[in-house]
């Protein structure tokens, strides 16, 4: 009956992790109190980018906007070069500072620096204060709880395997496997429910922020700003406003230029 100890471990891990996930999901789903004035406002491109993809999306938007204006060069190899060292706002100045005094850098360290830059953090704090963005603590709690349930699911499988090895085949392993199937079902179903229900609350935008994002008139993906023969960084004759709006909401998948997508994708962890 030594296998019962493994069963107790499996049940404890499943119950504790699933309870934590439920509590985190409930806390994240609690309605926020948005600023009454925020519900009727129009989001800026930076705000839309943050609510859609967080600090990384804001960095993508700044880099592409500066590239389209030929103030930066983005190579398909993942390097960025400064052409105009005078940033027009705090975010652009943060990009230039992150690139460094030599005026050239791989995109990866620039991305890392932008994610923690003061202007990006201030943007996120303003959106959280307005009730449009989900607080970092809520996103972190849900993500940690999901990882714990995944670990518990793996532990259930390992303890089940160990328990089955302790049971002689002649004694019948079916009932033992059935007992372990219950905590396995609990953890697996919790992960599925978290994917369907808790996942939206771990995104950057709160329900109020998602409503504002839904009002944005976004052009079709990879069509805005398209011009035959345009290369990375080519301002072209396309509508840059449409392209940047699509980028802010959809991310790099909205970029029509494959060279520009390659400059960002390979080095931004996509």
Low-pLDDT residue spans: 222-238
For the CA atoms, what is the radius of gyration? 24 Å
Spatial strand sequence of the major β-sheet: 1-2-3
Mean pLDDT: 82
Count of DSSP H/I helices: 10
Strand count, sense and barrel status of the largest sheet are:
3 strands, antiparallel
Question: How would the global form be characterised?
Answer: elongated
Oligomeric status of the shown chains?
Answer: single chain
Note the beta-strand portion.
under 5%
Which bin fits the share of residues in helices?
Answer: 55-70%
Number of strands: 3
Q: Please write the string of helix (H) and strand (E) elements.
A: HHEEHEHHHHHHH
Structural class: mainly alpha
Task: Write structural notes for this entry.
The chain has 270 residues and is mainly α. The protein contains 10 helices and 3 strands; from the N terminus they run ααββαβααααααα. The protein has helices spanning 3-29, 45-68, 90-99, 107-115, 118-129, 136-166, 174-198, 207-214, 240-250, 258-265, and strands at 72-74, 79-82, 104-106. Strands 1-2-3 form a 3-stranded antiparallel β-sheet. The relative contact order is 0.19.
List keywords for this structure.
single chain, 270 residues, three-stranded antiparallel beta sheet, 10 helices, 61% helix, elongated
């Amino acid at each position: 009956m030594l296998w019962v100890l493994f069963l107790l471990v499996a049940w404890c891990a499943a119950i504790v992790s699933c309870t934590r996930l439920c509590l985190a999901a409930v806390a994240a789903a609690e309605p926020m109190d948005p600023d009454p004035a925020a519900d009727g406002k129009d989001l800026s491109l930076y705000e839309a980018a943050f609510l859609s993809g967080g600090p990384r999306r804001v960095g993508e938007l700044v880099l592409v906007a500066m590239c389209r204006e030929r103030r930066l060069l983005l190579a398909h190899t993942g390097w960025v070069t400064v052409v105009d060292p005078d940033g027009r706002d705090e975010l652009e100045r943060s990009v230039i500072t992150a690139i460094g005094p030599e005026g050239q850098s791989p995109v990866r360290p620039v991305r890392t620096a932008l994610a923690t830059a003061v202007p990006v953090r201030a943007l996120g704090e303003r959106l959280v204060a307005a009730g449009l963005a989900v607080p970092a603590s809520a996103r972190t709690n849900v993500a940690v709880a999901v990882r714990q349930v995944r670990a518990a699911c793996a532990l259930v499988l390992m303890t089940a395997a160990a328990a089955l090895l302790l049971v002689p085949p002649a004694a019948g392993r079916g009932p033992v496997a059935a007992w372990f199937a219950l905590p396995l079902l609990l953890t697996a179903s919790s992960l599925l429910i978290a994917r369907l229900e808790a996942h939206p609350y771990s995104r950057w935008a709160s329900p109020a922020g998602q409503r504002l994002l839904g009002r944005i008139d976004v052009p079709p993906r990879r069509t805005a700003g398209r011009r035959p023969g345009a290369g990375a960084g080519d301002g072209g004759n396309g509508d840059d406003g449409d392209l940047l709006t699509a980028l802010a909401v959809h991310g790099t998948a909205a970029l029509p230029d494959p060279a520009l997508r390659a400059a960002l994708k390979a080095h931004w962890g996509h």
